[in-house]
Amino acid sequence: MIKNRRIKLISALLLTAAILISALPAAALAYEHDPRLNDHAMADVTADPDAVFGFAPGPDGSLASYAGYDWDDPDAVAGYRQARIDYFMSYAEMYALLDEMTARGCTVEETARAVSAKRNELRMAAYDGDPEGLAKLKERNLQRYGHEEGPLPDELYEQYGSWEAVIEKAFSHNSGMDACVGLYDEYYDYYIAFGYIQDEQVAPVSREYAVTALVEALGLGGGEDALSGFTDGAEASPWSVDALNAALGGGVVIGCGDGTLQPRRTITRAEALVIISRCLPSLDAAAEAPEFTDVQAWARADVDRLAAAGVVLGYGDGRLGADDPLTVAQLRTLIQRLAALR
């Protein structure tokens, strides 16, 4: 049976967002929801401070053919943005086809074949007036699938394993491109619905992301190529390299004691608080700190300093949750409290 309820949710998210944002001007912004937390997005784009929205297609990945576009030109990016909005609005044809075939009692396979073919048709139509872009699309399809029109239904079935999945994938889109054209926040709920990311209340933070966010929030700079001194330094994401070097150079990050940095490992609450404490050497910790029952000796002095300053409050039951993964929401709360101290 087609998972029509979920597809309806996704369709509502897509079309409502497209309607709401269609009149918004393209202008530089800081996203409320950071695309760097979305591995699906960052597989295809790079963080680029010169780009209008801070991100541009990378030289590798599925968006490589767009890397040469003018992502630092506001007028050009406004055009890319509008083209993407128009493309999402064209999804209405797929939703109408899905509803019509479901009402007629068509099989899941029949519906999947028709919907996936319609998506290929709409992708081609999206390049109306852009012969260069259409030629590049056909070339990519030819290289990837062996034909210009895009993936055939049987190829999609082989890739995803079921006709239900083929239908759902027909309604998916590239979150990296959304980040490049200023649409990332508008489709945040869509990424959760489609399983690209977790909600920020529960999503864990990596060590490299926590350090990057703190370096940016505190305005830390400088630092030589300290990453090369770690056996796994090359594993750091490109967008985190400058921040990690600054943190390492400033002594607020010292590694894991075994020659590794483990940049992509989830950071614990205690680890994050120790780093924050090192970022604030002049913090007044004269007040009495609460007694947390689960903080290990290596982190206690730093945690006590932050607790005395009101930066960290714990869970209210005597625990800090020292070994719990730090979530995106918790990191943002900590950064807000740090801002209030400055």
Give an overview in words.
This protein is mostly helical and 342 residues long. It has two domains: 4-193, no CATH class; 207-341, no CATH class. It has helices spanning 4-21, 39-42, 74-89, 91-103, 108-125, 131-145, 153-160, 163-170, 175-181, 188-193, 207-218, 241-249, 269-279, 297-308, 328-341, and strands at 45-47, 55-57. Strands 1-2 form a two-stranded antiparallel sheet. Helix 5 (108-125) packs parallel to helix 8 (163-170) and helix 11 (207-218) packs across helix 12 (241-249).
Q: What order do the SSEs take from the amino end to the carboxyl end, as H and E?
A: HHEEHHHHHHHHHHHHH
Main sheet: which strands, in order across? 1-2
Number of strands: 2
Mean pLDDT across all amino acids = 88
What ranges have pLDDT less than 50 throughout 5 or more consecutive residues? none
Rg calculated over all Cα atoms: 24 Å
Question: What are its keywords?
Answer:
single chain, 342 residues, mainly alpha, two-stranded antiparallel ribbon, elongated
Outline of this structure?
The protein folds into two domains: 4-193, no CATH class; 207-341, no CATH class. 50% of the residues lie in helices and 2% in strands. It has 15 helices and two strands.
SSE map:
Elements lengths: L3 H18 L17 H4 L2 E3 L7 E3 L16 H16 L1 H13 L4 H18 L5 H15 L7 H8 L2 H8 L4 H7 L6 H6 L13 H12 L22 H9 L19 H11 L17 H12 L19 H14 L1
Antiparallel strand pairs: 1-2
Helix pairs in contact: 1-3, 4-5, 5-8, 11-12, 11-13, 11-15, 13-14
